[in-house]
């Protein structure tokens, strides 16, 4: 028997190959921090990252193209799957884009209901992001504690639309059904208990020396660079620019609400953590204000949950079963045969992690002529190699989770 | 960078003080939080012995409905298939013959009706599109199976039990109180 072990001195490199000083390391696509769907090719010098190259497209599902063959209401389920940590915001953003094109004015109560749902979604998005930063820094417990409250929010969605993650919540012109009492009781429970849970998460992480030393100075970005890349949302605010779509181009009556914009200084992971943390508290206060405003509606106004637009909002089911006119509208809307105005609209909302925009061109047909999603994650990811260059490998992982890169949104 | 609004509030990013630098006090603080949780009520449930209740409007497995006399409601209008963003529904229509009035409610009915549960994204648009109260999404979740073929549910798999011959199974499958309106979720 021959001795099988290969001796290093016997390995022959192919002709013309150069010996490298660095190691190539694939961070992803099967790394748990990359959710199995994005790849970073890192050049490592020991533990330091010399250069990083990002790859996108592992879960590209051609949503923009798919949308060209779908009537407007069928595009909502596609938007669920962008940023799935806060799908209601995507749904609402899409509805508002359609409403802008179709020139539908919503009653105030619907606006406020939407704000409640959107802020709940923002909280779930931020709480996942912040607790996952904790997980990547080695603190798993806080994640489990706040997860219970995400569960509660999901139960609220479930009461309204019937699903938890891929919500498909709301319709063009309002909501599919009014909020029932369970929704309001669960909302009250959430408003009551969540601040405590958030306090616990803060208690576990915020001033903990390990966490601080892991996150302070990790993955920083200056305001200038962030703006140049086109950052928005919490990541831009952490860099020190107080830009918030909800304030600068208010939609869905956000102008009626009082809230502050937390900003950081250095744009590192710790700043991003703090900004998100504060934003959750602001969201809670917005929900409280909205809830109060909703309770002030009296009489028939207190039951409104959609705009009065028979051309775009489905008639009541009882009417469809019995009345001819309602049945005709029902058929027309479902078949996508209602008149669509020609035109171009852009509408943006403050998504879970930045400005989520919808650019819709309609040529008057039953489907969009072209639809583009402005997806904040895609933009953040462009900066990833710059902000991880020179840092440690462990910082790269923490940076990835604190930028809140969500593959579904990145690849569309 | 100058401020863009008057709502700007910098976050509190104080450097570590002496106690935080010592590291242990903060660790104990964290420990107390976790210890307190040890004695709290558990948030988890023992699935599958215990199951959580879904909301009344839950979008689960599809059911093809019958009317009170046990006739199939679907009239094969095709709206559900048209509304389906995943293109999961296929059907074939047929005309009701004389003597089949006790089987089908309308003059046209679905001879074949299939939903591919692997394509379906449980968006609920078919339920919303149906003008005949015929298809709706129940409170069951789609079960797992071994073969792809088994996920193509035929009309026989989808049809709700007959309320005339099997009233109990029907009531159970429907899971609704009489006259409850599913779409408004009113109890
Ligand atoms: S739930 Fe949605 S995807 Fe599934 S069959 Fe109905 S319309 Fe199609
Ligand atoms: S289930 Fe309803 S929508 Fe679908 S074909 Fe039958 S009647 Fe029409």
UniProtKB/TrEMBL annotation, chain A:
Source organism, top-level taxon: Bacteria
UniProt KW Transmembrane keyword: no
Reactions catalysed, as given in the entry: a quinone + NADH + 5 H(+)(in) = a quinol + NAD(+) + 4 H(+)(out)
Keyword Ligase: no
Protein's cellular compartments: Cell membrane
Gene field: nuoD
Domain NADH-quinone oxidoreductase subunit D: 136-411
Protein name (record): NADH-quinone oxidoreductase subunit D
Protein EC: 7.1.1.-
HAMAP family with a match to the protein in the record: NDH1_NuoD (MF_01358)
Task performed by this protein: NDH-1 shuttles electrons from NADH, via FMN and iron-sulfur (Fe-S) centers, to quinones in the respiratory chain. The immediate electron acceptor for the enzyme in this species is believed to be ubiquinone. Couples the redox reaction to proton translocation (for every two electrons transferred, four hydrogen ions are translocated across the cytoplasmic membrane), and thus conserves the redox energy in a proton gradient. NDH-1 shuttles electrons from NADH, via FMN and iron-sulfur (Fe-S) centers, to quinones in the respiratory chain. The immediate electron acceptor for the enzyme in this species is believed to be a menaquinone. Couples the redox reaction to proton translocation (for every two electrons transferred, four hydrogen ions are translocated across the cytoplasmic membrane), and thus conserves the redox energy in a proton gradient.
Lipid bilayer topology: Peripheral membrane protein
Gene3D superfamilies found in the cross-reference section: Cytochrome-c3 Hydrogenase, chain B (1.10.645.10)
PROSITE patterns, per the entry: COMPLEX1_49K
SUPFAM superfamilies: HydB/Nqo4-like (SSF56762)
GO cellular component: plasma membrane
GO terms, molecular function: NAD binding; NADH dehydrogenase (quinone) (non-electrogenic) activity; quinone binding
Assembly notes: NDH-1 is composed of 14 different subunits. Subunits NuoB, C, D, E, F, and G constitute the peripheral sector of the complex.
Entry's family note: Belongs to the complex I 49 kDa subunit family.
EC primary class: translocase
Record's keyword terms, sorted: Cell membrane, Membrane, NAD, Oxidoreductase, Quinone, Translocase, Transport
UniProtKB/TrEMBL annotation, chain B:
Gene Ontology CC: plasma membrane
Residues covered by the 4Fe-4S ferredoxin-type domain: 65-94, 111-140
Catalytic activity line of the entry: a quinone + NADH + 5 H(+)(in) = a quinol + NAD(+) + 4 H(+)(out)
Keyword field contains Ion transport: no
Residues involved in [4Fe-4S] cluster 2 binding: 84, 120, 123, 126
GO molecular function: 4 iron, 4 sulfur cluster binding; iron ion binding; NADH dehydrogenase (quinone) (non-electrogenic) activity; quinone binding
Biological processes, Gene Ontology terms: aerobic respiration
Listed Gene3D superfamilies: 3.30.70.3270
Cofactor(s) annotated in UniProt: [4Fe-4S] cluster
Keyword Metal-binding in record: yes
Family to which the UniProt record says this protein belongs: Belongs to the complex I 23 kDa subunit family.
Protein name: NADH-quinone oxidoreductase subunit I
Biological source species: Ilyomonas limi
Protein encoded by which gene: nuoI
């Amino acid at each position: 028997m021959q001795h099988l072990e290969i001796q290093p001195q016997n390995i022959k490199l192919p002709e013309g190959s150069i010996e490298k000083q660095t190691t190539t390391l694939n961070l992803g696509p099967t790394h748990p921090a990359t959710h199995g769907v994005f790849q970073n090719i890192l050049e490592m010098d020991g533990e330091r990252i010399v250069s990083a190259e990002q790859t996108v497209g592992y879960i590209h599902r051609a949503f923009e193209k798919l949308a060209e063959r779908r009537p407007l209401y069928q595009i909502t389920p596609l938007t669920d799957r962008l940023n799935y940590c806060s799908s209601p915001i995507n749904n609402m953003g899409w509805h508002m884009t359609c409403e802008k094109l179709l020139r539908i004015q919503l009653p105030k109560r619907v606006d406020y209901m939407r704000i409640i749902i959107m802020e709940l979604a923002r909280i779930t998005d931020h709480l996942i992001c912040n607790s996952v930063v904790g997980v990547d820094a080695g603190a798993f417990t806080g994640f489990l504690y706040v997860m219970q409250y995400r569960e509660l929010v999901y139960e609220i969605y479930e009461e309204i639309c019937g699903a938890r993650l891929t919500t498909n919540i709301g319709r063009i012109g309002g909501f599919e059904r009014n909020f029932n009492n369970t929704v309001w009781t669960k909302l009250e429970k959430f408003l009551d208990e969540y601040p405590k849970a958030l306090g616990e998460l803060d208690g576990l992480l915020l001033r903990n020396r390990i966490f601080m030393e892991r996150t302070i100075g990790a993955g920083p970005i200056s305001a200038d660079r962030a703006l140049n890349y086109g950052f928005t949302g919490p990541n831009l605010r952490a860099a020190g620019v107080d830009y918030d779509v909800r304030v600068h181009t208010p939609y869905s009556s956000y102008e009626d609400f009082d809230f502050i914009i937390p900003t950081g200084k250095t744009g590192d992971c710790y700043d991003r953590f703090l900004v998100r943390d504060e934003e959750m508290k602001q969201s809670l206060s917005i929900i409280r204000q909205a809830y109060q405003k909703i309770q002030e509606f009296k009489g028939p106004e207190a039951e409104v949950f959609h705009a009065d637009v028979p051309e775009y909002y489905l008639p009541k089911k009882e009417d469809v079963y019995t009345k001819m006119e309602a049945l005709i509208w029902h058929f027309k809307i479902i078949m996508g045969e209602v008149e669509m105005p020609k035109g171009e609209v852009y509408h943006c909302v403050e998504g879970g992690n930045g400005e989520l925009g919808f650019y819709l061109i309609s040529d008057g047909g039953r489907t969009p002529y072209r639809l583009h999603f402005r997806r904040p994650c895609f933009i953040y990811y462009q900066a990833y190699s710059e902000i991880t260059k020179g840092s440690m490998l462990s910082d790269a992982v923490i940076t990835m989770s604190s930028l809140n890169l969500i593959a579904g949104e990145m690849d569309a | 960078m100058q401020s863009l609004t008057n709502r700007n509030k910098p976050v509190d990013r104080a450097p570590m003080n002496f106690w935080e630098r010592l590291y242990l006090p903060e660790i104990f603080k964290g420990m107390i939080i976790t210890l307190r949780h040890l004695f709290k009520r558990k948030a988890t449930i023992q699935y599958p012995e215990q199951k959580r209740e879904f909301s009344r409007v839950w979008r689960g497995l599809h059911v093809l409905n019958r009317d009170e006399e046990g006739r199939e409601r679907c009239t094969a209008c095709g709206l559900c298939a048209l509304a389906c963003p995943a293109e999961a529904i296929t059907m074939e229509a047929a005309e009701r013959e004389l003597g089949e009035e006790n089987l089908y409610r309308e003059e046209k009915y679905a001879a074949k009706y299939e939903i591919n549960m692997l394509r379906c994204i449980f968006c609920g648009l078919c339920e919303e599109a149906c003008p005949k109260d015929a298809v709706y999404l129940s409170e069951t979740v789609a079960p797992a199976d071994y073969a792809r073929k088994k996920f193509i549910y035929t009309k026989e798999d989808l049809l709700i039990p007959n309320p005339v011959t099997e009233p109990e199974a029907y009531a159970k499958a429907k899971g609704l109180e009489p006259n409850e309106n599913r779409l408004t979720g009113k109890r």
